[in-house]
Amino acid sequence: xxxxxxxTIMSDPQIQADLELLDSDRQTVTVNLNGQLSTPFPAATLxxxxxxxxxxxxxxxxxxxxRRLPERKVTSPGERSHDVTDYRLIGELGAGGTAVVYQxxxxxxxREVAVKVLRDELNRDPLAQARxxxxxxxxxxxxxxxxxxxxxxxxxxxxxxxxxMKRIDGTTWAEVMSERTVKENLAILxxxxxxxxxxxxxxxxxxxxxxxxxxxxxxGEVLLADWGLALSYPVVTENDQTPSIGGTPAYMAPxxxxxxxxxxxxxxxxxLLGAVLFQMVTGFPPHHGSTxxxxxxxxxxxxxxxxxxxxxxxxxxxxxxxxxxxxRFQTVEEFxxxxxxxxxxxxxxxxxxxxxxxxxxxxxxxxxxxxxxALNLLGEALEVWPENTxxxxxxxxxxxxxSRRALSLGDYDLALDMLVTAGEGExxxxxxxxxxxxxxxxxxxxxxxxxALFSHAPDPVVITRADDGRVVEANEMFLSLFGFELENIxxxxxxxxxxxxxxxxxxxxxxxxxxxxxxxxxxxQLYSGQARVIDALISSRIVESDxxxxxxxxxxxxxxxxxxxxxLRRSRQRLREFTRLARLGTWEYDVRAEVVHWxxxxxxxxxxxxxxxxxxxxxxxxxxxxxxxxxxxxASMDNALKTGEPYQVQARHQIxxxxxxxxxxxxxxxxxxxxxxxxxxxxxxxxxEQQAELERVQAQTAAMQQLIDWxxxxxxxxxxxxxxxxxxxxxxxxxxxxxxxxxxxxxLVWQPGLEAGDLxxxxxxxxxxxxxxSKPDSNWQTFQIMPTGCDxxxxxxxxx
Length: 800
Hints:
This is Serine/threonine-protein kinase PknD. Residues 50-80 are annotated as: Disordered. The structure is a single chain. By secondary structure, the chain is α+β, with helices and mostly antiparallel strands. The termini are far apart. The protein is 40% helix and 22% strand. It is flat and about 135 Å long. The chain folds into 6 domains: 66-167, Phosphorylase Kinase, domain 1; 170-322, Transferase(Phosphotransferase) domain 1 (Transferase(Phosphotransferase), domain 1, Orthogonal Bundle); 346-443, Serine Threonine Protein Phosphatase 5, Tetratricopeptide repeat (Alpha Horseshoe), CATH 1.25.40; 464-557, PAS domain (Beta-Lactamase, 2-Layer Sandwich), CATH 3.30.450.20; 572-686, Beta-Lactamase (2-Layer Sandwich); 704-798, 2-Layer Sandwich (Beta-Lactamase), CATH 3.30.450. The strands form 7 sheets. It has a 7-stranded mixed β-sheet with strand order 3-8-9-7-6-5-4, covered by helices on one side. Strands 27-26-31-30-29-28 form a 6-stranded antiparallel β-sheet. Helix 11 (332-364) runs antiparallel to helix 12 (369-384) and helix 14 (412-421) runs antiparallel to helix 15 (428-443).
């Protein structure tokens, strides 16, 4: 019957005595489920009975050779290196109860590595060897940036078992955790969790996650080490295979300490990640005892050390360390998501703290800069964490104080905007701002504003009196465009300047001014000073100045823009007409966005109806292609995507009424600067009528050929220009050319001076000869030319 780790310890006085030599909570302890205990760190290995026979002697163990491990020449530190040396040990990097880690030089590839060597006193212990091999093979099976890469597993000439791995120039996380910020430590923990998440995908548990087993490199590397307790899950015990349980009591999950085999799984490692987070937040691991046995008992009871620290991070750690595995985070991803959400919210909190400082400084400073910085920081904080109530309240208070500053500086519009944004648009402060703004508007001289408008406006501007339309002022742009001198138009009714091409448009413009007191972008045609018509956008507004209503009018010349728009409109119309006449539909396919655009003619060709939401996709179009033609078209399109080559395929397309139409599909791929196909544009042309006509002509030609062959005479069917359409077998035999060759390349040439179109109607005899590439020197002879029912086809018969 299997016993728990604690029961095994308590039942053996010798083990208890040996454990008194160990640190109370930081050592790694393991126990086989059959009761065998060991501590693979600084203490003598404790074991009740070996699981494999121990061999004597100093030569390599046959048991190792059976594993087919390579033998390597290893020189110890201070020992002279030889040409046959594979690894030269330079110095010790660290030591534990089962192995020593050395800095070494691997001669074959001339690189610095770390070599982990099984201790001499354990090198003949098959159980220790098996565990060492298991650790090495576990590391070797894991290919992840946060797991130390194993280079080679071998044994030395004296039988010492070792493996080489990537050397990390750095330190353990445990040595520097207290020096790092919370944000830095969180980033390290998330990367350690990445390694565990990867291991879980390989159905492996680490079981001994702690800061001492995390290496931090000088260049930002984070590597999880010491996979000696790694275990495949679900744990299955068969025959004499009894996997060990255990870990470091200070971090150990209850099921590890209690030896509850069926409860060991991914949530066990998640507990350990939570324990590391607990230490990161509080400064100490979760379990403690005055002796190692007390610490193991605390782990089995899940007795968490008390702390005054509170907060979201501690809550995450405690959730990960729930006694019941089902109450913990169920996956490493869930644990990581909780950390990332915390980090995200902490960023929002930090932004709020910075905003508070700037908001406080703004009260002592002048201007708006500090308020603007504070509001920008608060905007970022709320973008990261929209529910941050502290940020929401501080943002409102800052906006109100910002509006007070703007009010004191006479910037009433800004002050009012801030109050409206803060939700205080109807407050007493907002009413005070409006009153002051209204008072200042009446104090400001309109003429000064109009003068500034004239000085800086890039467009022609004219000012007229609103009641009678007489010109008051005009800027240089207006005078230049319309060819006036200012003294000649002042106090002249603007209607008398005859600027409007269409009087009705002027009436419409005046009606809008009368009803709305303003006009924006009114489009009209005006006569310029060069006696040419220009297209213009007119914007006008009635303003009050010294108890007088003035109409300020801005004229923008858009002649070039209108010309371009009209030309574009005509081009588009011509293109639509062309595609309609050619029965040519066009389409564009964005490869990355997987979006297809059709023109209206393509809908007409396919018989599909446009969708207000989107055009049909490629698959929808493919379904309408005849099943026999679909693979060919699909292959051509796939090849275009892959190679960038254009394609042209004739296929049959089914319209909604079930009828098939013959189309030619063409596509032209477009590549980006990297040579990748990013877009394909193409056409679909309906050639059903041409195809039908071609098939009709081919059928007619075939029928004509059969009729001529049936006659048994030497006959030719010729076209209106003498081209041979058909030839009887007798005629072909007399010329020693096949009928098919005559039909493809043959020509009946008339006597000099006579064209085929000159032949009168009816039967007649003419001098002619048959020309063919294979008969360049044929003789002239008399042919009887006879009409047929078709004006473009005649029968020619040699006169014997």
